[in-house]
Amino acid sequence: MLHFSPCTDSTNRSRSMAVRTRLTWMQEKNLQTYFGGKQLTLLYKASVHEFSAHDLFKRCYDQGPIVVVIYKEHYVVGAYMKTSCKKEEKIPIVLFALEENTISECKISSYVPTELFYDYNGRRNDLEFHINMRKQVMTLNLDTSEKLRLPHMQASPFQECEVFRCEDLLDRRTLEGINELHKSLLSAVNTYKPHKNLVPQVRILLLGPTRAGKSSFFNSVKSVFRGHVTHQALVGSEATGVSDTYRTYSIKDTVDGNFLPFILCDTMGLHERGKGLCVDDIAYILKGHISDRYQFNSMKPITPSHCNYIRYPLLKDRIHCAAFVLDVNSVKYISHEMIAKIKEIRRQLIKCGMPHVVLLTHVDSMQLITKGDLTDIYRCIPVKHELEAVHKKLGFALSDMLVVSNYTSEWELDPIKDVLILSALRHMLWISDDFLEDLTAQGNKNLVV
Known about the structure:
It is a single chain. This protein is of the alpha/beta class. 29% of the residues lie in helices and 21% in strands. A 6-stranded antiparallel β-sheet has the order 1-10-2-3-4-5, sandwiched between helices. Strand 2 (66-71) and strand 3 (76-81) form a beta hairpin. Helix 6 (172-190) runs parallel beside helix 11, helix 7 (214-226) packs across helix 11 and helix 8 packs parallel to helix 9. The chain is elongated, with a radius of gyration of 28 Å.
């Protein structure tokens, strides 16, 4: 699975198995979004580093903007310090309360942070908010408590304190790692050779409901290799799809002008009933009997008597890998009829020994998913839930599910999207090789290029 950033865990967890935030994924995402799409990197955890203001500031001074999170039994209360903590300098502070998915905030006066977090017994009575770290008690004055919609907290005990550095989701180091992986994946695909050079190009068949993103995936792949966004394959929003034509797309390398070692085969969309790709045509596609630009007829499957029927296909004409393309946001709404149709097609693929994967598109439009999440998308809780849903409804193995974000309305390329697209493509090339290797292992007599 994709894991390409040198520092992509959403809180980094200090790279220590013992130091993990107590925030839930949802709480963390809400805070990240609330503070402008930031990454929270854990610097200090009281139960690990000691309940001590001295230790807290030792780890958090001069670290840039920080978020202090206090855990009480039923509430999460915190302080956001917008500028870096420096000794004896007053800084602006915003208090917040997080209850379930609701955040309330309250701006307070500027303070020197050591006035608010301390270890000694004495304290000033005019503070709006203060914490005795040694005693593990927090106090909010009445006005501040009301603004945060919390009960008045006079010397109220708390269980844990964590401090996070609050920084941009995509820092320079992360972007450098993305760019390096981008170059590596481009090179890997460009230099790929099908198993024992049995075919000049492997063929990848794209299957799925209309509007799932099949044509957009081809456009996105071509865009990556062209170096700019292109829209060769027609894409639309009509419920019935925009094409009833079988298309086979090759892409030229812009450096040497040679064709890249794969062909993407786009089909008519699947429908629950009536219109759409005829399931009986799929076996003919897999075996290479259907030619480019064949016009599908959902009511009349192709037969050997058809004028465009390829009677004696070669290995290079056959499909070597299939991908079911699904909109990740539509998985929960997929109908029983569509589930049955996909399962029927999958049985055909298994019968033919055809390797296949699921390609989940539109991941960038999922709720709470940010651009930074795309660098480690398989760890995101909403994505994990959708993968589990596909596994439960359709029976695909989790390891056979790939996540991408297609180019649909963008004008410029994005290296993060490119890496997701290239990673999915590389995986499909690998399993195409597995198919070719199985054929040679079986001593297949039809291995003719």
